Amino acid sequence: MRIIYRYITRELISPLLFGMAAFTGIFIGADLLFDLIEYYTDYGVKVLTLVQLFFLNLPAIAVLTLPMATLLGTILAFSRLSADSEITALRASGISIYRLVIPPIVVGIFMTLITIAVNEFVVPEANYLNEQIVWEFKHGYRKPASQNNLLLPSRDGQGRPDFFLYAGKFDGETGVLEDVIFQDFKDGRPEQLIEAEEALWKDDGGWIFINGRIIHLQAGERIPALTFAEYENIPLSYKPVQISKLNKTIDEMNIRELRGLIELEASQGKNVNGLIVSLHQRIAIPFANIIFALLAAVLGIQPQRSGGSATGMGISIIVIFLYYSLLTIGSALGEEGTISPVLGAWLQNIVFLFVGGVMLYRLDK
To answer: Can you list the domains of the chain with their CATH numbers?
Structure first.
């Protein structure tokens, strides 16, 4: 069996590379090139900068095209084996359909791991650098890391106000808050108000408020303010790096950062369904490599399928269209809360895995 597994795996490599080149070329020609041409004609961007933007966009494209390449490559490989009656010969020798699909599934697992790695370690940084470059030539200056009029509310487990932070300015590079107002609540009622010129994050953790005053609040009265040069006893647990995430787009975050943003916005009482869907899609979309490998192997084994590239491409486009249609529907339902956000992110995978499993079972009969 090892010889057969190696043989099928070798047969998968060439069409897989062809699929990667074909779908990457489609994405580049249909979208990226038009953007680069617009940058050149409208903003006069230098050719070297355009080349840099081209390569910075490739990782995000690869995340989308790798599952497509797995689908097309597997269909083409198994269609060729089926057209040349090699599948029939293997089955006649006593090898079951379930064993024949093991090599493409193993390849799908390998492609899934690659896609997850690229999506986690390469895409966020590439998207961030791409956004900085585009912002600079569109606006004439670097995209600021600071935020003005920062609002950071938080609620307790019962949905009541826990604290409210306002800063006139937050410097994302130094982590300094300026013109700070911190309103602390107890059991949903205001307890104290702290005003300070600035707030600094200590290396060992915790915030220091500089040059301000504290006003203790009680029902029906207001205790005179107490001034301070430095004050540390502040129930504010968020680190500067967490606050700075509010200025990042989702596409510029890795899974760890996205989880932190979900926790941060959930603590503020915001609806995080959309963020949860995006988080789980970081795994669900790469996982399509495995599902596409299974489904494509079943489609390719069918004796009526032609081994031509045009037929394989056509089948792939139909499958991809259906997959991303379900992806869009599941995302919308998950974001609206009609179904669980987790289910919304994985809906298309569940459907296609079920269809592929049923087709495989029927093919073995």
So the answer is: 2-138+273-363 (no CATH), 147-264 (2.60.450)
